[in-house]
Amino acid sequence: MRTPFLKMHGCGNDFVVFDERAGTLGLTARRAAAIADRHTGVGCDQFIVLEPPPPGSTADVFMRIRNPDGGEAGACGNATRCVVHLLATETGRRDLTVQTISGLLPAHVGDDGRITVDMGPARLAWQDIPLAHPADTLHLDLAAGPVADPAAASMGNPHATFFVPDVETLEIATLGPQLERAAIFPDRANIGFATILAPDRIRLRVWERGAGLTLACGSGACATIVNAARRGLTGRHATIIADGGQLDMEWRADGHVLMTGPVATAFHGMIDLADFPA
Length: 278
Fold this sequence. Notes:
Elements: E1 2-10, E2 13-19, H1 29-36, E3 46-51, E4 61-66, E5 72-73, H2 77-91, E6 95-100, E7 103-109, E8 115-121, E9 143-144, E10 147-148, E11 151-154, E12 158-163, H3 172-180, E13 190-198, E14 201-208, E15 212-214, H4 218-230, E16 237-242, E17 245-251, E18 256-261, E19 264-272
Parallel strand pairs: 2-3, 4-6, 12-13, 14-16
Antiparallel strand pairs: 1-2, 1-19, 3-4, 4-5, 6-7, 7-8, 8-18, 9-10, 11-12, 13-14, 14-15, 16-17, 17-18
């Protein structure tokens, strides 16, 4: 039996989206990894499944997120915007809430079609990221090649941000895998490399755990504005320039991080799930 899906992206960060609100489809971690493969499947940075919100939840939908290796992720800002776009199209509403394993994500559709997501508060304590042992999350004792001294934060998943003079000169495909699996990160980590262009502009590239170098990373952008502001490198508002586009970021005084950006649908598809191992 053929099953519909959507291919969507936010600033080039791309997703395969399935809808299980009407019933389960057998989208196991193994099957998700097979479909996420760019050579033998559909291909995506993250595999997204829409599910009914749990009993008692105020959310409009539960969003399950898997990385291309099948591992589950707690947050994905660009995917959240894509899901909100789908819900807004269905309901005609501009204010919606998405739930993930990391919590509730309220969102608003603006007049210009861009979507703002409240990604929740940044978690800055070492045990919340988590780190393997107590450490100063503003200055981690971690280095590889030309990069050192990152700041760490959790936005539902662990992030470390290295501030560098010119991110374009880095061999991220070499540095990323090494740093993602550094011993200080028991759950691995997303690794950001950021160059401050101005007090309100940051160039960012992110190596995502389980996904590799992506064209944009929403939670990575959140961690970057938080870490940049904590270090006094920027204010609490900044435009973050990723390979695939721009995100407008705000770290509010209450600790919540707001992310605003575009959404696009690449195509609608049909797939025979039986062709992929369960």
